[in-house]
Task: inverse folding
């Protein structure tokens, strides 16, 4: 069974940072690209960033503006999202997607 579990969310002040993790199991992790998406309260799902299988290529949404960094550790079947310079508009549930599976998300709240 394919399983993805995001963690690392929480409450942070504007300008702060968080590191999200996505733990994967049940499939050949290194054979798949991975993505992070988010969904803000009352809004639709928004793509954030994607990393290819060997981490040689990364694509990101325009709103990222270099503030977020995706990475992966194929040996550990883990994917990460470093969030820097967070702003209130970044408040959302963040979730990882791999192997056509959406994982359980983690809530990031940016507020003073």
Result:
């Amino acid at each position: 069974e394919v399983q993805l579990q995001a963690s690392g969310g929480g409450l942070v002040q504007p300008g702060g940072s968080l590191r999200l993790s996505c733990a994967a199991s049940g499939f050949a992790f290194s054979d798949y690209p991975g993505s992070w998406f988010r969904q803000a309260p009352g809004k639709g799902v928004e793509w954030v960033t994607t990393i290819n299988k060997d981490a040689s290529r990364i694509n990101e949404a325009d709103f990222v503006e270099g503030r977020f960094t995706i990475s992966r550790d194929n040996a550990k079947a883990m994917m990460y999202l470093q969030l820097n310079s967070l702003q209130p508009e970044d408040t959302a549930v963040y979730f990882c997607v791999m192997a056509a599976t959406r994982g359980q998300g983690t809530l990031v709240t940016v507020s003073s």
User: Anything to note?
Assistant: The radius of gyration is 13 Å. The chain has a mean pLDDT of 97. The first strand starts at residue 3 and ends at 7.
